[in-house]
Amino acid sequence: MPFTHHPCLKPPHPDDTHPRLWLDDFMPKAEPPDGPVADWFSGISFPMDLNDQVGDCGIAAMDHYQMSMDAFGSGSCASWGDGTCQQLYETLGGYVPGDPSTDQGTNLQDNLTWWRHNPVKGTEILAFGAMRLGTWLRPERLHALHAFGPGYIGGLLPQSAEQQFPGDWTVVPGSPPAGGHAVTEAGEVLGTDDVRFTSWGAVVKASRAFFMQFVTEYWCIIDAQGIERNGANQYGWDITGMNEALTALTGQVNVLKLTTIV
Q1: What confidence tens digit (pLDDT) does each residue in 5-14 have?
Q2: What is the C-alpha separation between 225 and 170, in angstroms, rounded?
């Protein structure tokens, strides 16, 4: 069904003014597991989080991320709710209810930077990092999805996706852009053309070609659940190296709160 898109994604910052942890520097060299390998969406009813009314998709994607992590970590999850999402949009996007001129979306890196210092309803994150353009092919995505949970993604949505929603998102040649949009990548299932996004309160299947055309920035969120879950580091990430790089970026020692520091 056609869907009205709200402007909800500000352009990413350049790395020279807003340096970041580049996760591909610490990524495993081995191939990821085969099969239906990453599912952060089954059994979860993701809410709209006001994104049918205002351009708070960056906030909605944060909520969807924490719901996935809770659901697969503790077996239950709850949305932050519309009230909290609006408060976050006011804080992070400068939105003033009733003033459409302030409905301009958010910047994903700014959102994560704020969240790292401000837990939301008890949900805190330890750190975050990005994958460089060209390193978010399927093997890299699977490694990230296994280790860190859903990807926090920004991209340029074509108008065709609005018409296709909630059906599959596939490339329609010549479709003009509708504007920036944020989603989570909540899974990769049975094949290279079975990417799953959360968007507008739904889980949307997308083709590999659509993913590569749509995505302009790919962020991974690192929380305590993920570090604990991957304490054995079964996928081969250089966790110690990540921790040292984060210390260099933030000036804080042991950002990932590792039990053993080498």
Answers
A1: 666 899 999 9
A2: 33
Assigned domain for 4 exists: no
Residues with Cβ < 8 Å from 110, sequence gap 6 or more?
10, 13, 92
pLDDT in tens, 191-232: 667 899 999 999 999 999 999 999 999 999 998 766 655 544
57 domain residue, yes or no: yes
Whole-number Cα distances in Å, 260 to 233, 243, 244 = 13, 11, 13
C-alpha distances in Å from residue 169, one per residue of 81, 97, 100, 147, 157:
27, 31, 28, 26, 10
Residue 14 lies in a domain: no
- What pLDDT digit, counting tens, does each position of 47-102 carry? 999 999 999 999 999 999 999 999 988 778 999 999 999 999 999 999 999 999 99
Query: Residue 190 sits in which domain range?
Result: 23-250
* Residue 2: cis peptide before it, omega within 30 degrees of 0: no
Number of domains, the chain = 1
Domain contains 92: yes
